[in-house]
Every structure is written in C-alpha cells, then in structure tokens.
Amino acid sequence: MERTPVAIVGAGPAGLMLSHLLSRAGVDSVAIDLRTRAEIEATHRAGILEHVSVRLLVDEGVSDRVLREGDEHEGIALRFGGRSHRLDFRELAGSSVWLYPQTEVFVDLADARRRDGGDVRFGVRDVQVDVTGERPLLRFTDADGTPVHLTADLLVGADGSRSVCRHLVPEADRRRYTREYPFAWFGILCQAPRSHDELVYTRSERGFALISSRTETLQRMYFQCDPATDPHAWSDDRIWAELQARVAGEDSFTLREGPITERAVLPFRSFVQEPLHHGRLALAGDAGHTVPPTGAKGLNLALQDVRVLAEVVPDVLRRDDPSLLAHYSQRALQRVWRAQHFSYWMTSMLHNAPDGSPFDDRRALGELTGLTRSAAGSCYLAEGYTGWPS
Ligand code: PHB
What are the FAD-binding domain coordinates in residue numbering (predicted)? Predict the structure, then answer.
C-alpha cells in the first residue's frame, strides 16, 4: 500500500513534465508507464517545438539542451504549383520554432526527473485504474515484480492517444468530438544530407509531402498515403520516385536520396473529449485530444495542458476540492480548439481528398496563392505555427 497526492498514468512528455512542474511547486507525484524508458526513446514523433514550449523547458529548469543542440527555424517553405514560397516567421510573427525531436524532449525530462529524485516507474505491468471509490486507486506490478496498491488524491491520465483513462469518464458526463481523414502519412527516416535548410510543406496533384530533418545526415520525410498502405510493400526506389514526383517543379527542386532506415504509416485523426476532468481524474495531452500531425501541435499542446494543470493542482489539493479542475479544463480547451482548427486547416489546405474534385484542387491552390500574397494571411499561419502566447 502506497499513497501519493498525484498519480500520473503515462510517463511520456506530458506525464513527466507534469511531474517536474508539480515537484517545483512542492507537490509529490508518482508517474507510471507500461513502456520501458528504452521503448519510449525508440518511438519517433514530430519534431517542432513552439517558442513557448522551448521557454517552458528552459525556464522551468528541465534542460537547455534544446538551445544548444536544437535547430532554430525562422520560417518554412509552402510549395505548390511546383514552386516554393517562404514564410518568414521572424518578420510575420516576431517568432520562431525549434526543430528538436520529441524523443529528445522525453530524454531531457526523464533525465531531469532522475536528477531531481522524481518517482517515475517505467516498465510496470498489469495496470488497473479504479476511480469509483472515495480516492483513485492504481494497482500495478512494478518492473521488479512487486505488486503495488497506490492511492492518490488526484489521478492524471497522460496515457496518450490510446488512453485507457479517458474511458473512465462515464458516457453521460462527457462529449467526444471526432473527425476521421481519408488519408494517412507514410513517414521515413533516411541517411542523406539535408535537401533544404527549412521544412518544406508541399501540395501537389499527387498529394501532400513534408520534407523535415533530424541531423546533418539523417532526414525525416512524409507523404500522404491511403491509410491501408503496407509500408513494407514499398521498395526504396518506389518511395523516392513518389517523394520526388510530389516536390518536382519548374525550379528543379530535388531531394537528396539515401538508404531508408525506418518507415511507418501514421494514423490521422482529430479528437477532443470534453471536459478534461471528472471527479478526481484529469486528462492531459493526447489522452484528452489528438490533432493530425500537419501543424506539429500535439506535443506543444500537451506541454501547455500540464503547465496549466500544474498551476491548478496545488489549490485542488490544499482545498481538497476536485471541482476546481474545471478551471484547468476550461483554460486548456481554449488552446486545444484553436490548435484543432489550425491543424485541420493546414491539413485540408495541403492534402488531396481521394474523392476530391478538380474544383477542390484548384480552390486549394487559390487559397495557398491568396495566403502567400496576403500579409494578413501569412501572419495568421506564422502565428499559429510558432504558437500563441501561453
Ligand atoms: C517532423 O519533423 O517529424 C515533423 C515536422 C513538422 C510536422 C510534422 C512532423 O508538421
């Protein structure tokens, strides 16, 4: 039998950042995860951090490695009609983003929790969550085989897009908002030099493509595909031909090719569960909402959720009043819906719906042309991409 003020299910970036921020506010927590630390480190996710996310990592004392090893990007290229159009974030929004993969954010957070003596348990088994009693109860088997009963004053579900915790909220007490998309992303990692010094978001008649990067010698690229695609049925040559065809244009832009070391088809969905709390349970990050990866908002939203949650939790505990979690839900959802719109908008503007008509295609090109030629339109994208103030 153990007790903790806050039990956190999920020790990815959202769970670990929450545990870190709570400890700075003098609140203890226990975070658990079914995955081992090595398994989480091997998961590839998006790589763009908004300015406010970078500030949170640095100012809250997690690590300043992002400033030393991350790459600051002051713009992106929008590519359509076979030409690139640069959006200058510094000029348009007075801001920038950092290319710093989610895995590195996780490593920094896990190291910081270890450094500060945080209670984080990776590789646990047989997790059972019970929120029907007076206090939330977690039962699990520790990595070393010890059975644990953990009672908490608050339970936080930070257990990702396949969250178990979100289903603990009775149907009558929640609403779910979902949008499915008729496409997915085929993502690759390849050993090659950079093809461009900033990210390239491309709309072509063959569909969307995104050229991103990891290091000088390792590149990340994606292209829109059918959700039923088997990534292993595609040869390297076929993947390169498809990517090259999507970015081709009158300026002869070509991708620098190399051996493909990883490939996966990534699901695509917009989802929100409201509210983000119920009784002594709060949901944070992908557990409460998921966005398609086009706007690179998922990790950034998760970090802002837990920033707000960590402000509210000390009050909830002091007054023993879980209804105060409503303040968290209301504040977090404002940003969530703004980001939902942004991600949906970027997605629909840059992808081809399989049942789309030639009219839809021309209309999207008209939208992109209007956007890149309008200072107001370009500013709107730059502000959304670099992130709104927290
Ligand atoms: C990535 O580098 O993995 C990445 C970047 C931007 C996105 C999505 C993914 O919008």
Answer: 3-342
Q: Judge if 150 and 255 occupy the same domain.
A: no
| pLDDT tens figures, 358-381 | 999 999 999 999 999 999 999 999
Residue 326 lies in a domain: yes
Ligand 1 centroid, distance to 369 Cα (angstroms): 23
HSE, side-chain direction, 13 A CA sphere, residue 20: 28
pLDDT at 267: 86
Active-site residues, by number, are: 73, 201, 293, 297, 385
* Calpha distance 167→170 (Å, rounded): 7
Same domain, yes or no, for 194 and 330? no
The residue contributing the CA closest to ligand 1 atom 7 is 296
pLDDT 10s digits, 320-342: 999 999 999 999 999 999 999 99
Q: Which residue segment(s) compose the domain that 305 sits in?
A: 2-73+99-178+269-346
- Would you state the pLDDT for residue 47? 87
- Which is the closest atom of ligand 1 to the Cα of 99? 2
pLDDT lower than 70: segments of the chain = none
Q: Which residues contact 299 (CB under 8 A, 6 or more apart)?
A: 13, 45, 46, 49, 53, 102, 105
DSSP, collapsed to helix, strand or coil, labels residue 5 as strand
Query: Do 143 and 67 share a structural domain?
Result: yes
Give the pocket of ligand 1 (CB within 6 Å).
Answer: 46-48, 199, 210, 212, 220, 293-294, 296
Asked whether residue 11 falls in the same domain as residue 41, the answer is yes
The pLDDT of residue 75: 98
Whole-number Å distance between alpha carbons of 140 and 110: 21
Q: Is 370 found in the same domain as 259?
A: yes
| CATH number of 65's domain | 3.50.50.60
Mutate to test the pocket of ligand 1, among 87, 102, 202, 220 (most ligand atoms within 8 A of CB): 220
What is the signed CA dihedral for 192, 198, 203, 209, rounded to 10 degrees? 30
Residues 279 and 262 in one domain: no
| Residue 218 belongs to some domain of the structure | yes
Domain count of the fold of the chain? 2
